[in-house]
Amino acid sequence: MEKMSLNSLIEDERLIILHSGELPEVAYHGSIHYLTEYPNGPLLKKEDIDLTPLKEAVIMRYQTIIFRDLDHKNREKRIYRGLARAIVNYARLNKFAKLEGMAIRHIHNEIKKRTHDFLQQEIDEVMKGNRTTCINCSLDELQQFLQDMQIGDKKLLHGIAAILNPH
Fold first, then answer.
1. Which of 2, 77, 89, 126 is most buried, taking the most CB atoms under 10 A from its CB?
2. Is residue 167 over pLDDT 70?
3. How confident is the model at residue 40 (pLDDT cuts 50, 70, 90)?
4. Residues 6 or more apart from 128 whose CB is under 8 A from it?
5. Cα–Cα distance, 97 to 106 (Å, whole number)
6. Three-state SS annotation for 102-142
7. Which has the closest alpha carbon to 6: 28, 36, 26?
């Protein structure tokens, strides 16, 4: 197969993954199947394909959906899934990156920052009485996530406990 046409095929599959919805890993495996096994596909040999652009697309898609759910501006929108989904998708992202040998430290740092900012804003708004919390996971799940993210801000942890367990 001609290099340009292989690049074009990979780019098409990369775009599909980038716009795949909530499960980019499923789209990734679908792309591999299409490129290598699907009877009407190009029937390429897996070892002849550089899968890096497709793996990067999975990571970028996870990043997009995690960031979506760590943005208060999305709270009232239909696309918003909440902190519980961000936690699940972060675990999926980590698992995928580990299995595929992809470095995601830069994304981890940005998710850590956005999580901290999200929670601080949530605490501030709820404590002022502006609204009820939108946190849709348990305190235990959130504490485990914060531990995984290495967020140990004690003031933040106390604020979260206060809004999730008001007495």
1. 89
2. no
3. very high
4. none
5. 12
6. CCCHHHHHHHHHHHHHHHHHHHHHHHCCCCCCCCCCCHHHH
7. 36
Spatial contact of 24 and 57, defined as CB atoms under 8 Å apart: yes
Distance CA 105, CA 84 (A): 21
Residue 4 binned pLDDT confidence (cut-offs 50, 70, 90): low
Spatial separation of the C-alpha atoms in residues 93 and 66, rounded to whole Å: 9
Residue 14 near residue 30 (C-beta atoms within 8 A):
no
Do 139 and 159 touch, CB atoms closer than 8 A?
A: no
The average confidence (pLDDT) of the chain is 95
Cβ distance 72 to 122 under 8 Å? yes
Backbone angles phi, psi at 76, to 5 degrees: -95, 0
On the question of pLDDT at 119 being above 80, the answer is: yes
Average pLDDT rounded to a whole number, residues 44-68: 97
The count of other CB atoms within 10 Å of the CB of residue 127 is 13
